[in-house]
Structures are given as structure tokens and as C-alpha cells.
């Protein structure tokens, strides 16, 4: 029953000219579920995220979000319904502080809600910015400019930005890429600390990080779903190991 699922991807195909980046992908994620998507470079993971968010709509197939077909909806309407994502590249305002980045993210989401009460919208967004900094483990960095943050803190801030408003499902695109072992530990703690009702899908090349933070794992290969399983099943699967490590 699609109505009881947070995300339902059915038969999604995406081609770029002659290249079939996604080939009939099905993926179903329950409310509050945490799911990893693994696969070698070029397996189609980011293209799947792009189809779900509407960055690059699918060539074929349907996508439902909490029971509603969003395949044709503009990105903004998906965001309004509680879908969020992070990117492999940064979308932060480097010259602004952590507080101001989070303020802008919150105001962007709150604008409609407070269109008749504009002054309150500003107060609301400022309070929200401080709450988000806490969730991103950046409370002590509120007045630091993004350019002066460490790389790991910048990635944390990107997660904080995705938490603005009332997210119901977040897509994290390789949040551990480029992080030191210590920063990876912080990331795992941050993800564990997210509200329990909040589901996420995480693309991650670092198996250690991915398997620590999810309930289920989906492995992609050449634009198709290769396998679903629990972290323990996937970790023990020799076929998965061969394909996954083959792409490293
Ligand atoms: P990585 O782990 O390297 O990020 P991925 O699993 O996310 O890989 P995708 O980025 O989804 O893989 O790419 C899947 C295939 O689609 C690749 O062959 C890629 O070159 C191709 N592709 C993705 N986006 C585009 C685009 N906008 N135009 C043309 N080809 C694209």
C-alpha cells in the first residue's frame, strides 16, 4: 500500500541520450526508515536522488511521497511536502555566518506560512536557526563564517540546512566524503541524534558509516537494483562485496 510508505519509486528509468543511467528502479521506504543506497561509481545513485527530488525528472516511472504522486511536481512543491536533500557539492553561502545560512534556510521554508505575519516570520526563522545549529552540532559556531569552518563542520551545516522547516524524509548524498575518521564519528553521532520520526536515504561509499546508521540497505549496479537487505545481510554477502568493492 503506497499510502503507508514515505517514498515509493516504481519503475523509474532515466536516460541521457543513449546512456541508461536508471533502468526500471523500484524503491520503497517507510516513514521514519533509514536506508542506505550503495553501489560503485556510476551505478545511478545520484541520478535516483535527482529523479526523486525533481532535479532531473525520470524518463519513465512514478514517484510517490507519503501516498501522493509527485512525479510531475516542481521541486518547490516537493520541498513543501517535506522532502529535502543534500548535494555532493556545497550550496552554502561562504561569506555568511552559520546563523545566517540557517536563518535563510528557515525563512525560505517559513515564508508562505508567515506571509500575513511577516515580522513574526523573521523571529521564527531566527529561533529556528539556533535550534538547527543544535541539531547539526554547531551551536558554538553560530557566529562563525562558513569560510572559517572546517570542512567537516561545513558538511554538518549542509545537514542543518536540510533540517529546516518540517522535513519528513531527507536524501543525503555522500555526507562522509572527504571527512577525517574523527569527523566521520561526529557525522554518525549527528545522524543518530536526528528525530526518530525523520527518515532518510543515504548514499555513502564508506560502508562503516552507512551500515552504522541505517535499518536497511539497497545496492545498485549498472542503473538497477541489485539487492535489498539488512546491514548484516549486506555486509556478509560476497556478491555485494565483489561488486561494491570492485567500484572503489
Ligand atoms: P558516484 O558514486 O560516482 O556519484 P552514482 O552512482 O551516483 O556515482 P550517477 O551520478 O547517478 O552515479 O551516474 C549514473 C550514470 O549516469 C553515469 O554514467 C553518469 O555519467 C550518467 N549521468 C548522470 N548525470 C548525467 C547528466 N546530467 N548527463 C549525462 N549523463 C549523466
TrEMBL record:
GO MF terms held by the record: ATP binding
Lineage top rank: taxon: Bacteria
Keywords in alphabetical order: ATP-binding, Nucleotide-binding, Transport
Domain ABC transporter: 7-247
InterPro entries noted in UniProt: AAA+_ATPase (IPR003593), ABC_AA/LPS_Transport (IPR051120), ABC_transporter-like_ATP-bd (IPR003439), BCA_ABC_TP_C (IPR032823), P-loop_NTPase (IPR027417)
Name of this protein: ABC transporter ATP-binding protein
Lineage: Bacteria, Pseudomonadati, Pseudomonadota, Alphaproteobacteria, Rhodospirillales
Amino acid at each position: 500500500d503506497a499510502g503507508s510508505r514515505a517514498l515509493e519509486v516504481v519503475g523509474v528509468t532515466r536516460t541521457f541520450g543513449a546512456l541508461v543511467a536508471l533502468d526500471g528502479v523500484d524503491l520503497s521506504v517507510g516513514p521514519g526508515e533509514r536506508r542506505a543506497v550503495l553501489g560503485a561509481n556510476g551505478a545511478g545513485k545520484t541520478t535516483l536522488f535527482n529523479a526523486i527530488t525533481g532535479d532531473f525528472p525520470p524518463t519513465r516511472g512514478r514517484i510517490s511521497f507519503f501516498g501522493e504522486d509527485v512525479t510531475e511536481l516542481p521541486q518547490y512543491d516537493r520541498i513543501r511536502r517535506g522532502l529535502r536533500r543534500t548535494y555532493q557539492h556545497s550550496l552554502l553561502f561562504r561569506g555568511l555566518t552559520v546563523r545566517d545560512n540557517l536563518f535563510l534556510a528557515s525563512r525560505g521554508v517559513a515564508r508562505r506560512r508567515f506571509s500575513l505575519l511577516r515580522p513574526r516570520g523573521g523571529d521564527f526563522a531566527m529561533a529556528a536557526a539556533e535550534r538547527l545549529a543544535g541539531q547539526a552540532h554547531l551551536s558554538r559556531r553560530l557566529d562563525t563564517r562558513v569560510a572559517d569552518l572546517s570542512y567537516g563542520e561545513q558538511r554538518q551545516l549542509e545537514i542543518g540546512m536540510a533540517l529546516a522547516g518540517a522535513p519528513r524524509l531527507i536524501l543525503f548524498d555522500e555526507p562522509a566524503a572527504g571527512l577525517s575518521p574523527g569527523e566521520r564519528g561526529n557525522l554518525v553521532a549527528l545522524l543518530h541524534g536526528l528525530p526518530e520520526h525523520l527518515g532518510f536515504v543515504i548514499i555513502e561509499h564508506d560502508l562503516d558509516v552507512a551500515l552504522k546508521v541505517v535499518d536497511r540497505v539497497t545496492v545498485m549496479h549498472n542503473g538497477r537494483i541489485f539487492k535489498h537487505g539488512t546491514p548484516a545481510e549486506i555486509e556478509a554477502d560476497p556478491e555485494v562485496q565483489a561488486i561494491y568493492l570492485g567500484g572503489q
